[in-house]
Amino acid sequence: MRVVPFLHSQLQQYQDNRDIPIPKDIALGRCANWTHPILGSDGYSAEFYIDTNAPLFVSQGSLSTGGIVVTQSRKVTSTNKAKVTIAVKLDDPKFLEYVQVCEARTSRRTKGRVAESFARTLQSVPWFPRHNGWFSVSVELPRMDSSEDPLDIQSFVSQMPSFSHMFKDVDAVYFNSLSVSTSDRPIYAEALSGGRIDVTTTKAPIRGAFNATNSLSLVNLKSLIDVELGLHDVTPPSSMGPNMDCTGPYWPCPPRAFLRTRKGLIRATVSLTRAFTTIGLGRRDKKVENVLGQELLTSFETSETSEAKTIDTTGGRFLISALNKRGPIDIDFGETPLNHTLRLDAVTSFNHIKVAIPPTYEGSWKMDALKPFRDIVDESQTYKDPTGEHRHRVFQPLVHRIREQDSRDIPIPDGMVLGQCVNWTKSDSDIDAYTHRAGFHVDASALLFVSQGSLSQGEIVVTRSRLATSTNKAKISIIAKLDDPKFLNYVQVCEIRQYDEEPGSGVGIFSVPWHPHSNSWFIVSVELPRTDDSEDTLNVESFISRMPTFIHRFRGIEGVHFERLSVSASDRPIFAHSLFGKHVSIETSNAPIQGSFNITDFLGLSTSDSIISVDLGLHDLSPPQSSLCGEERLWQSHWPSLPAVQLETSNGFIHATANLTRAFDPAVILHRPHWEEDEECRMFDSSEHSIPSVSNALPITLAESTEIIYTGGRFSIAAKTTRASIDIDFGETPLNHSLTVDASTSFDNINVVIPPTYEGNWKMKALSPYRKIVDNRANYTDPTGENRERVLSVDRQNPFVEEGTVVWGRSEDPEKRSNGWVELNSMFGRATIVV
The whole model's pTM is what? Predict the structure, then answer.
């Protein structure tokens, strides 16, 4: 099916109506005739009876959510029909107007179920009605007779992305082909048996017991796979004729299992059996049909039939593959046949793998890991010969290879010049027997911190000294906590005097690129100096941190101004309290950014899969137009740029409260060149003087008494996330300011509270049922004291966009309209603007 093109066509075609799109590959039959509400509940139900030959289940749309349970009837039935009961719980009967549940037929007239709705997914009309519902789908497979033969189902397909799946009491059912695909929903199976089984989900566990004779695939993302597996080799031995192995076109390959996830546990207990049946040993013709774009094995036709006879034997071939990223793997074995052939591949990163080889296994083994992390547990003496011949189990490593990375060589980044390295001193406390300390003193005007290696991890804390000092030196204290004194052989902590083109000096923590058995945690304390007892601002020209696996904390740094601050981390949070700077850039991933920031130029906060929660202070320090005359405006562009904030994350909310101030320090004027004055204006003599350097005029502390507060000022805030909300509020703001706000998200809500002093345009890009204007004008009074009325106007409105203005006094004033721009862009979510 089409995805993005389909979405765009539906946006133009439906525009908030109730037409429900149906996939092209499906022809609908009878649709649900909803019965009266279910007794004792707030839902409705419908029933269908479908052929069990190849049941098909499909859902589409964000209202199509719920759970599906597949069971087998305990009573013997005379028909090969499955009973499908669909119950829906809802908060409003109008919900049924937005969903459609029908019998579906493919091109081969295979019957199934389709639960359709239109909401915010790509396969439905792009708006979400204000109703909630939950589908409970019960599939009861028939029990044909009282014999022990299992119910044979050729194909079972479920493409219900927002449904949890449970297979319960189906131990007497055999699925020749089973395919289940869902998203963010768990899958559970109780003794599920089949030939070819494919199960896929994301961010939800896969649990249960699975038995396969051909192939078994369990694929997950960011969640666990905890299963019991039964692999059954039913291929006949090669002595029974040609085309009887995997290379033949009519017989299945030996069973194979494929387990895959990321950032989750893989735990499997595997049983292996070898058995085959003599039924249909003649040539088999298989039919393959296309169902919803998938080629599925639907039936076999046998040219020869004979009485079924199951033969158990030794041997058998089995293949198991487990692939993980940043998650552990644990594989154990139960019963296994003699003389079997087993190939097992288990791969992960940044975590451990444990495999218990079965006692009947005979063959080679290989561990591809660094030497300190390879463990062999020899239990061979506890096993008895399974053949009864009293043989001894021989265990022998054939190759012991030492990697080059197993050495203690510690690489140093290119372009780095090191100074003094640490001479570790041990703690006097017995409790801290494995704690070592070191210290440096470096120039506080430009600081640089770098870490590299798998052992270089911990926390860096930046504070300011409470005591006055006579030097402009920052005190850096390093505490190394470790579980083994040998850890110090694998790390190196040194003073950095130069690193490529980065300014400043500081400390670097480096370690070997491989991970020994020792665990470590560094605590780096950076204490900035206080030069005297006054409240003068300490100006730090540069603070750069490239310590990806360190938590960063800035606290107690009131009175410190950072001309440039750049922090880069990964999978570690960043916290700041009252951080004041000109150009601030902070980046991390999979971890939050929280705190309070005051900036005069630029603030960039970026993370992923986590939140941003901050208090912002934006300070416009550029001189007012009224203080510039004549050619003086020629060098206005050399004043500090206007304060701008960029907040960006994904799958995490953004919450920001901003205070805007407009301040200009006359001390800056004192640094400008000579002026020639006339009666009307002071003119700039460009022939004798050059443009002044702004860096000489700054820093400016907002606490100085020489400061003059002005109205106006220009400010910019941009916030962007996905699948999470955005909430922006304002505190104090100056009169006549110019403000730009751009907030964008998808599949969630945006809420922006416009400050009472704001005058300008606003715009909401969201579907019409999800746009809201909260009018608080009655709570505001004219901030100028002129008793003007606050005017809210809507200039344009359609199903996708709504825009207007809010001003004090006449809204037709073009100057007021150009003062600001607030835009909210919420795709498939709600946009709320408070004026």
Answer: 0.55
